[in-house]
Amino acid sequence: MDTADRVLQWLAGRARAAVSGEEIARALGVSRNSVWKAMGRLRERGFVIEGRPREGYRLVSCPDVPWPEQVAAGLETRLLGRVEYVPEVGSTNELARERGRLGAPEGSVVVADRQTRGRGRRGRTWHSPAGLGLWFSVLLRPDIPPRETSLLALLSAAAVREAVSRAAGVEVLIKWPNDVVAKDGRKLCGILVELDAELDRVRHCVVGIGINVNHSASDFPPEVAPQATSVRLVAGQPVARVPLLQRILEGLEERYITALSQGFGPVLDEVRRHSATVGRPVTVAEADGSTWDGLALDIRGDGALMVRPAGGGRDRAVYAADVSIRSLEGR
Amino acid sequence: MDLDRIKELIELVSASDIAEFELEIDDFKVALRKFSAAPRPVPAAQPAEAPKAVAHEAPAESGPTSHDDDRFIQITAPMVGTFYRAPAPDAEPYVKVGDVVEAGQPLCIIEAMKLMNEIESEVRGRVAQILVENAQPVEYGQPLFVLEKL
User: Fold this and answer.
1) Do B118 and A199 touch (CB under 8 A)?
2) Which of A27, A89, A207, B70 is the most buried (most CB within 10 A)?
3) How confident is the model at residue B40, as a pLDDT?
């Protein structure tokens, strides 16, 4: 930790009361000049620090950047939240998987301000510019059979949905399996879970979450703009990223611990209650390119979407396909 | 490869649920096709109740003389989902028939509900057979690959 970080910690610990440069210098065992230099560096990083003669320095506000110390302050979790922050990374999932392979503990979180190769399913890209979103991955090591881990994707969406609804003051929904969407169907969060498992045991599971937080409409690339939105656009005002991340981690932990002890029943009920998909006419685009229409009936206990084909025949369980909600198209 | 080996192979394939089998070693090639084999039905998407065995060696019913059955190993699906041979639609497949793979090397991806499970080889071996078409649904426990251990 460099002097600037130590000074920041000291200032933050003083509950935003003024503290003299001399006192800080003495406490940290550095010169007054290096305290003064540290203040300059902190201000460059976006911290607002008031300095008054005779009174001293006072921390007025912190930049809304998910640095580990910012996320840790006021985070009420036991398991999740060993945060590693990187200004820029190819993909937080890749970095978290690497950390997982090297033995990082459960609950480790990798956050980036910007992803250069943010990924969606099947090699699709996820636009992840600096300063606007939350791009992070959580490392889990659940003691459950690999075949049940796909329910973690739904569970993560439930945690994000609740935290975003509260932060925005507007209800958002889950589009099966795990997109979080505004009422009009525009997407504001994508989740991609990657599993590293032995035959019958999970080594680790990385839950990658990308949330468009403070994007304006013009911040989206033209190819995604028609289907994309952000928490800010839904809320009608900017939303702080750090508290949103904290609430998501707390909600994720709570549901995760419940699922491990009581099963996925409670979280599946929550997903059904807030589903944008259930009860709607849908088009199912299968992985092999074929498509068919139907009515989304329910989300089954194993997470599959039950769809009644429009052309007749038995209800079908959908596990992996692009399911679009027809009534929300062509807005 | 001598006649006895080929007989063993035929017995091995007969005893398994493999419909077709091809093996190529240097300039020798053998292709086996089960006459009775009906086209594989499209698996009805059913969860968990499938056979418990996640991976098992090819059945050793080809007679007490054979020790070669151990050479072949089946890789089965650890979960219900969609089988992909490549990490992205425009990417090269992870493996092709005849490829030599190391233990821990990815063979395919199975996706369910946006969870991506990269299936790794348990052994060093040669890919003898790929049993599922790209982008098709697979059931829990369904055989995906036959590997010849090296």
Assistant:
1) no
2) A207
3) 42
B50–A contact, CB cutoff 8 A = no
Domain spans of chain B?
3-33, 72-149
With H, G, I as helix, E, B as strand and everything else as coil, classify residue A81: coil
Q: Exposure pattern of A3-36 as b/e (b: 16+ CB <10 Å)?
A: bbebbbebbeebeeebbbbebbbeebebeeeebe
> Residue A317: its chain B contacts at CB < 8 A?
45-47
ipTM, 2 decimals? 0.80
- Residue pair A181/A160 in contact (Cβ under 8 Å)? The answer is no
B118 touches chain A (CB under 8 A): yes
Contact at CB, A193 and B116, closer than 8 angstroms: yes
Q: For chain A, say whether B52 makes contact (Cβ under 8 Å).
A: no
Whole-number pLDDT of residue B129: 94
Model pLDDT for residues B83-127, shown as the tens digit of each residue: 999 988 888 999 999 999 999 899 999 999 889 999 999 899 999
Backbone angles phi, psi at A218, to 5 degrees: -80, -5
Strand partners, A192: A208
Question: Tokens standing for A132?
Answer: 């606007």
Contact B84 A289 (CB under 8 A): no
Beta carbons of A319 and B81 less than 8 Å apart: yes
Nearest-Cα residue of chain A relative to residue B80: A147
Listed in sequence order, the residues at least 6 apart from B121 whose beta carbon sits closer than 8 Å to its beta carbon are: B75, B101, B102, B103, B104, B105, B106, B107, B147
Fold of B72-149: OB fold (Dihydrolipoamide Acetyltransferase, E2P) (2.40.50)
* CA nearest to B117 within chain A: A195
Q: Is the pTM of this model over 0.80?
A: no
How does residue B3 score in pLDDT terms, banded at 50, 70 and 90? low
How far B76 CA sits from the closest chain A CA (Å)?
9
Confidence of residue A252 (pLDDT cuts 50, 70, 90): very high
Q: Which residue has the higher pLDDT, A117 or A259?
A: A259
Angle at A158 between CA A281 and CA A259, to 5 degrees: 120
* Nearest alpha carbon to residue A118 among A137, A139, A141: A137
For B114, which of A178, A196, A318 is closest by C-beta distance? A178
Across B42-68, average pLDDT: 42
